[in-house]
Amino acid sequence: MATQDPDKLMAKADNLTKLSFTRWNADWRNATVLYEQAAVGYRFKKENEKAKEAFEKASKGQEMISSPWDAAKHMESAAALAKELGHWNEVSDFYRKASELYRECGRSQPASDALGKGASALEDTNPDEAVQLYIEACEILEEDGKEQMAFDLYRAVTSINVKLERYTDAATFLLRWGVAADKCNAVNSQCKAYLSAIIVYLYMHDFQQAQKCYNDCSQVGSFLSSDQGRCTSKLLSAYEESDVEEIKRLAQSSPITHLDHVIIRIARKLPTGDLKELKKEEDKAEEQTLDENDLT
Amino acid sequence: MSVIDILTRVDAICKKYEKYDVERLNGDNVAGDDAFARLYASVDLDVESALQKAETASQEKNRAAVVALNAEIRRTKARLLEEVPKLQRLALKKVKGLSKEELSTRNDLVLALPDRIQSIPDGSTNGAKATGSWTASASRTEIRFDSTSDGRFESEYFQQTEESNQFRQEYEMRKMKQDQGLDIISEGLDTLQNMAHDMNEELDRQVPLMDEIDSKVDKATSDLKNTNVRLKETVNQLRSSRNFCIDIILLYIILGIAAYLYNVLKK
Q: Tens place of pLDDT for every residue, chain B, 267 residues?
């Protein structure tokens, strides 16, 4: 049967599903089988457009006969073909649909995997959409208590954000990563995430934020006493003293070299801008507080 | 005769002829009831042995052996010095059979003893001065690495400080190399620690997955076992001998018909 012409199979399957005078109920079971065979045949022949359509219809058929797992699988295949064809909005739609079907089955891991695949497919062409998909994937896992698996997704989000130069977003996600790591007691990853966040803030030349971030993160005892925590405090004190040599030396030191390569790259570029400006800003801030005291 | 018998016999004979043992009598006479003489003899012996040790120490090349020997000599000296006052008391006691001159000589001998004891070389002589300077310069070189042996350049010690200079240089070079090596090792250990942490977290991640796999595979195996048992029953039913015989007979009939047809067609 597989050697039959896929076109013929498609036609047959369409006949089975189209409601007409003679047919009151669509025969989805047989139709689905035919659709699957047609899709495989098209894929073999490398007719991606038709294969994609066949997979879509097969997925719908599976839905009708209420087997969401197979439906989701077909959706994923359709999405992969859409990616090859370059229909980017279809890609995100299909992957989203596949993810929903997986969730119907109650399997969160494949659901987030589907969204992850979609996001990585869209990284180059539509990074915003990709970020969105990644966030959804992380949320699915966190709902289900499987934060461990979310680490890779957070890493991908961070790298996209840094590439897009959206450093505040990147830092936010790093802190969220820290929270996820905290929930599953992954101390090393947590400390690394916090260190990365502080480096991102320093790269943005926002020393106040970096300081605040460090103070917040120091509330976590394990960060304070870790190698990464010590490195952070040294880095911040080097910034305060405007000691460029020290900053460069710390960027080569071991806690930073063990971070994600995207972060290492920006750490090597530290310090950005003029350190004396930071001092002036600090002094201004201090003067302002003094004025307030005078008023009271 | 056993050994013990021989020994007892020899002892008995010796005792009998003790009075003919000239050497011992002489020795006893010399010491005999005389406590002073005995003690003096033992002290003398110790002094002689100490002097011999001192000679071996001065010829010894191995510094550690020299140090050990010197320490022994010093201990013996201290012990002997303690015995000297006892000897003095004994010297003043009057013993029968001893002339007045001998008494005075004894006193002199006792007085001469401390000097003799002190004069035994134990590596710390040549004046306490020189010892002081050696230890002082040693401590100075410990504190300041740049200074060579300032202080006295006494002829004996000049050579030694040259040696120790070289030794110190070598030591510092080796220390630097060790430091470099240790730095490299510490970097490697940092990387190792990081990898170990990551592996730890990865394994933590895998544990619940493995548990899931475990339960799923258990379920699959039990399903398989059930299926196998049912299959076995079915196959056994099918293979019951009656069906088997019927199958064989029918097979023969078909073969017979086929052969007949073949013959007919061949003609």
A: 788 999 999 999 999 888 887 776 666 555 555 777 888 888 888 888 888 888 888 887 777 777 788 888 888 888 888 888 888 887 777 666 667 777 778 788 888 888 888 887 776 644 444 444 444 444 444 554 444 555 544 555 556 678 888 888 999 999 999 999 999 999 999 999 999 999 999 999 899 889 999 999 999 999 999 999 999 999 888 777 777 788 899 999 999 999 999 999 998
Nearest CA in chain A to B192: A258
Contacts of A148 in chain B (CB under 8 A): 201, 204-205
Instruction: Note the residue count of chain A.
Output: 296
Q: A–B: how many Cβ contacts below 8 A?
A: 21
Do B205 and A148 make contact, defined as CB atoms within 8 angstroms? yes
Within chain B, residue ranges assigned H as helices are 3-16, 22-30, 35-59, 63-92, 100-118, 127-143, 155-238, 241-266
Any chain B CB within 8 A of the CB of A193?
no
Chain A residue nearest residue B197, CA to CA? A188
SS (H, E, C) A228-259: HHHHHHHHHHHHHCCCHHHHHHHHHCHHHHCC
CB A94, CB A115: distance < 8 Å: no
- Tell if the CB–CB gap between A189 and B201 is shorter than 8 Å: yes
ipTM of the complex: 0.77
pTM equals 0.60
Q: Cβ of A185 under 8 Å from any chain B Cβ?
A: yes
